[in-house]
Design goal:
The protein is of the alpha+beta class. It is built from 16 helices and 44 strands. The longest helix is centred in the last third of the chain and has 24 residues. It is globular.
Length: about 800
């Protein structure tokens, strides 16, 4: 039987003629940090102090002991970052040049000193650029010239920390006769049967040995002979339970086991979990353009998505528990789709396992982002090899529903001046429209492929045409106010977002000893977007008076504006289902402490945007929309049951008086949107009035979560004469209770100001006079009403 032994002990990192202890899996930065050679690059402006690390060559070493008892011994690296030579007692075993692949070397009968020598990623990239010529990109760093995580070279939310190291597990595999080299599982549903076709490839040590495979799933077993080095075994499971995305059903998973046998004796075993479901991508043309709608098990979905970046700029530090925490946060926010963005990595099995269990659909980008990528060697062969390996590696996961060729490169070619600069040089089109769809069609025909995001489906339309395929909405934020989201109805919004700073405690930890200010050196260093603070300021001034010199107020208002911006987009686009079939917020997470578009900051703390997503992505959402000369209430019902009841509408003044009120009936079918005209007598007029719409819980069919209150203010906040907010605060074990005596708009408890470990269960909330809210707080050991009041923020009269 194949024996696998992790090779984790005894590694050293060569440094300045000496040796430092090394952790494998890991990277140079984490080893240097553990040894006290470099400061924490996440703190202050230390990032700049450690830039030299990415410019050096590095060597990892350990002893490899002799083994016996088997015919073959392989040294297997699941991931090497990135360009390296692997040597045993000075003898070259092989060279690597791709972070996204695994490597296997025959070390049968060998022992001695094992060394892995890494070339600087900069040196390699610059050598390839010198050979193949200049290619344009969104950033000056040369990430497009090698197959490495692009964002380790920095991004508009990430630090420039160019890594090297043995970043995924390494092991010795000892085997005899034959081993399983690859299993390609095609999982389908055919007329109620769950079907698993396992295409098996083996590597032999003995050519003449007769081999069979035996597979099982769901109580069904089957056997097949291996003809040479390959074979296929088919399993059919009757009455199979379907796997559904969260909110649509359960996520049953089935254990598949395949054993390789020689004369009845087991040689190797392959185990995975699968789920049975069908997935289609409806890209039909209609009167609105070209659609982009996911269809799971025949059910059409409005995708409630978030974009995912590597959760740490040093991915080897991301544990199974951290994946579970972050993806659990996504699921708890109502998310049902996670897009793995193309400037990162193919994630580890733990990521996809968590998505399988949580019912989170996975949209997987191939790792290409925001650059023109050469198509010549040595890159072209690496691209196909990594695609082949990772497509097969990830195929068992039912959560994976889409392969995407790249992020923004087709758009960049058309709009960012690349075409003229390239003057006919290769730039990646051959990957996105040739190599990658061919690999997916050959290896994984069960899933759809799209050439890029954004992509209209063909060059007949602009790549980012909102009427066709996927759309990235970045004019808003970069140049326009978030009201601009309402100007069109894209078929699928794959990226959009608005920045805000991280939680106060995250800033305080990351910038020790610094007096925090919007323009302090550390705050600016942890803002990587081009003119990021300028865009923040201009975006805020469209709605609020800018709080000069008041960091606490600046911090709070930026959080409010981020939540408002994302709400403006999602409420508008969800109200236009099924024309618009999904929104994917940029972004869920951060890889370090930074001002960014994330809903969860680099220390794992939820921003107010995160809690707003829980409202925006709830199954049932009530929103007030401007339609022509009047207002309508859109009842968005993504639940599986109809939603019907009575809407109570109140036209109110900001001083708390009800000017007029009305009641109207509504009914929204399952997975549908219903619009109800707002009666003229309750339409607010001027800056002193607003509309409150509530579903009467006594009349509603089905559950009525928080998302079933809608507010509409016809004027920008800077013009609204808000009263000075008055409210009472009390505390109970694990809770802060706030009772409003006036209108209190966008009340926020910043729990991390009470204790860095404290968390609140909700974000921004607006209270009418007399209303009360209970905010549950964990991690705060000494509840105190005065302390709670000091951590409460809300909108105040314009100053």
């Amino acid at each position: 039987m194949l024996q696998a032994t992790p090779l984790t002990d005894g590694w050293i990192l060569r440094y300045e003629g000496g040796a430092l202890p090394a952790v494998v899996p890991g990277c140079v930065h984490t080893d240097l940090l553990a040894a006290g050679v470099i400061p924490d690059p996440f703190l202050g402006r230390n990032e700049s102090e450690v830039a030299w690390v990415g410019r050096r060559e590095w060597t990892y070493e350990t002893d490899l002991a002799a083994t016996d008892g088997h015919e073959q011994t392989d040294l297997v690296f699941d991931g090497l970052d990135t360009v390296a030579e692997v040597l045993l007692d000075g003898q070259l075993l092989g060279r690597t040049r791709n972070m996204h692949r695994s490597y296997r070397f025959d070390v049968t009968g060998m022992s001695g000193r094992l060394a892995v020598r890494f070339v600087s990623a900069y040196a390699e990239a610059e050598a390839v650029r010198g050979k193949l010529g200049e290619r344009p990109a969104a950033y000056a760093e040369p990430y497009q010239y090698l197959r490495k995580m692009a964002c380790s070279f920095g991004w508009d939310w990430g630090p420039t920390l160019v890594t090297a190291g043995i970043w995924r597990p390494v092991r010795l595999e000892r085997w005899s006769t034959a081993r399983i080299a690859r299993v390609r599982p095609l999982v389908t549903v055919e007329q109620g049967l769950g079907v698993v076709d396992l295409a098996v490839e083996v590597e032999r040590a003995r050519v003449e040995a007769p081999l069979t495979v035996e597979a099982s799933v769901g109580g069904v077993r089957a056997r097949a002979a291996i003809d040479g080095t390959s074979g296929t075994v088919r399993l059919e499971v009757p009455d199979v339970r379907l796997w559904w995305p969260r909110g649509y059903g359960e996520q049953p998973l089935y254990d598949v086991e395949l054993r390789l046998l020689h004369e009845g004796r087991p040689l190797d075993v392959w185990r995975r979990r699968v789920g049975f479901r069908t997935v289609e991508l409806d890209r039909s043309a209609d009167e609105h353009g070209t659609g982009f709608t996911f269809v799971l098990n025949g059910e059409r979905l409005f995708a409630r998505g978030v974009n995912w970046i590597p959760d740490d700029v040093f991915p080897s530090r991301i544990t199974r528990e951290r994946y579970r925490e972050r993806l659990g946060q996504a699921a708890d926010a109502g998310v049902d789709l996670v897009r793995i963005w193309g400037g990162g990595i193919y994630e580890s099995a733990e990521f996809y396992d968590a998505c399988d269990e949580l019912g989170l659909l996975v949209w997987q980008d191939f790792p290409f982002a925001c650059a023109a990528y050469p198509e010549e060697q040595p890159l072209r062969g690496e691209v196909e090899a990594e695609a082949r390996e990772n497509v097969v590696r990830l195929m068992p996961h039912p959560s994976l529903v889409l392969w995407n060729g790249n992020n923004e490169n087709l758009w960049g070619f058309r709009d960012w001046g690349w075409e003229a600069r390239l003057a006919g040089d290769s730039w990646g089109e051959g990957y996105y429209l040739g190599v990658l769809p061919r690999v997916v069609a050959e290896l994984d025909p069960t899933r759809p492929y799209t050439a890029g995001s954004p992509w209209s489906g063909s060059w007949e339309h602009h790549p980012n045409d909102p009427a066709h395929g996927t759309h990235h909405s970045w004019e808003v934020w970069n140049r326009l106010d978030y009201a601009g989201y309402r100007d069109d109805v894209p078929r699928f919004v794959a990226e959009f977002g608005w920045q805000a700073p991280p939680a106060y405690a995250t800033f305080a930890r990351a910038l020790p000893g610094e007096e925090l200010a919007a323009d302090s050196p550390g705050v600016l260093h942890h803002q990587k977007a081009d003119d990021g603070n300028g865009k923040l300021r201009r975006g805020l001034e469209r709605h609020f008076a800018f709080p000069e010199g008041d960091f606490d107020r600046w911090h709070y208002l930026m959080q409010v504006n981020q939540a408002r911006a994302v709400a403006a987009g999602i409420e508008h686009w969800r109200s236009h289902w099924p024309v618009c079939a999904g929104t994917v917020v940029w972004q869920l997470n951060d890889c370090w402490p930074v001002t960014s578009w994330a809903a969860v900051d680099g220390d794992g703390r939820e921003k107010p945007l995160y809690h707003e997503l829980r409202r925006l992505y709830a199954d049932r959402l009530l929103t007030v929309r401007e339609r022509g000369p009047g207002l309508v209430l859109a009842a968005v019902n993504q639940a599986g049951d109809p939603w019907a009841g009575v809407l109570r509408l109140r036209r109110m003044s900001v001083d708390g008086h009800v000017i007029d009120e009305a009641e109207v009936d509504f009914r929204a079918d399952r997975r549908a949107v219903a619009e109800v005209a707002v009666p003229a007598e309750v339409v607010p007029v001027g800056a002193k009035e607003f509309l409150v719409a509530d579903v009467d819980p006594s009349s509603a069919t089905g559950p009525t979560p928080d998302a079933t209150r809608a507010l509409y203010f016809p004027s920008p906040d800077r013009e609204i004469p808000y009263p000075r907010p008055e409210f009472d605060v009390s505390v109970a074990p694990g809770a802060v209770i706030v009772t409003a005596r006036t209108l209190v708009r966008d009340l926020l408890l910043q729990a991390d100001r009470l204790d860095p470990e404290a968390r609140a269960d909700r974000g921004l909330v607006t209270l009418l006079p007399g209303e009360e809210v209970t905010i549950h707080v964990s991690g705060w050991e000494t509840p105190d009403a005065d302390a709670a009041r000091s951590a409460l923020y809300c909108l105040e009269p314009s100053r």
